[in-house]
Amino acid sequence: MKLSFSLVKQLAVPVVAAALIACQPASKATLADGQETEFNTAYLEQMGFVVESYQAAPMGGLIEVITNQGLVYTNADGSQLISGRIYDITAAEPVNLSDLSLNAMRQRDVAAWADSTIEYAAPDVKHVVYVFTDPSCGYCRQLHERLEDYLALGISVRYLAWPRTGLTGSAAKLLEQAWCADDQRQALTAIKQDQALPAANCEAPIADHYALGHKFGVRGTPAFVLPSGQLVPGLLPPQQLLAELER
């Protein structure tokens, strides 16, 4: 995960603010070697992170923290931040241990938001994938045009909203209209074909999906979340997606 420019600017924490943070109560965290440490989430919170969970990192002396902006690592007391990946290099091929944690997080989160997706269910379901979509995205339209091919292979598609131009752009408004429609599947197809829909009149989960995508590391659409939790950016044709799912 790369830190945004606005986040990097906040690294220059004033001395007074740092002193106040240090005085706040800390929670106990257990490191990989079994030792307990005083872990203070306030440093991360000052930088704009929302801390969701933390545990010992695979690398000694570090804490692995799941936040609203994804995965980061800190030192034992939470006062220093590392943005990067940890690899196990003991085997013939390196294993990305950070990705394993991220995949588990994505699995939990998409399951929590499953009821808010627009689902196109395969007649004979073998796999379920989540896809972040934007109606103005050409590759998203191509995927949707071939939707029956995915369904025929036993791949159900659950769409999540991810307007590439942000929550104030036209794509966000179109997605809101689709999610507020009585027939969401028909409405989503319609907006991807430039057909007009009635104005939205509901509390659509567009902002929640958009935040979820940022947390997952989505940078464009379409973006697939596989049952393993793996994030795959870009358009995967039906047979290529099936091969990926059956690896």
Task: Write structural notes for this entry.
The structure is a single chain. The protein folds into two domains: 5-96, Roll (Nuclear Transport Factor 2, Chain: A); 116-245, Glutaredoxin, CATH 3.40.30.10. It has helices at residues 5-9, 15-22, 42-46, 97-112, 138-145, 147-152, 170-180, 184-191, 206-216, 238-245, and strands at residues 27-30, 36-39, 51-56, 63-67, 70-74, 81-82, 87-88, 95-96, 118-120, 127-133, 155-161, 223-225, 231-233. The chain has a five-stranded mixed beta sheet with strand order 9-11-10-12-13, with helices on both faces. The chain has a four-stranded antiparallel beta sheet with strand order 3-4-5-6. Strands 1-2 form a two-stranded antiparallel sheet. Helix 7 (170-180) packs antiparallel against helix 8 (184-191). It is globular, with a radius of gyration of 21 Å. A hairpin with a 5-residue loop joins strand 12 (223-225) and strand 13 (231-233). It is of the alpha+beta class. The chain contains ten helices and 13 strands. Its main location: periplasm. It comes from Pseudidiomarina fusca. InterPro entries: DiS-bond_Isoase_DsbC/G (IPR033954), DiS-bond_isomerase_DsbC/G_N (IPR018950), DiS-bond_isomerase_DsbC/G_N_sf (IPR009094), Thiol:disulfide_interchange (IPR051470), Thioredoxin-like_fold (IPR012336), Thioredoxin-like_sf (IPR036249).
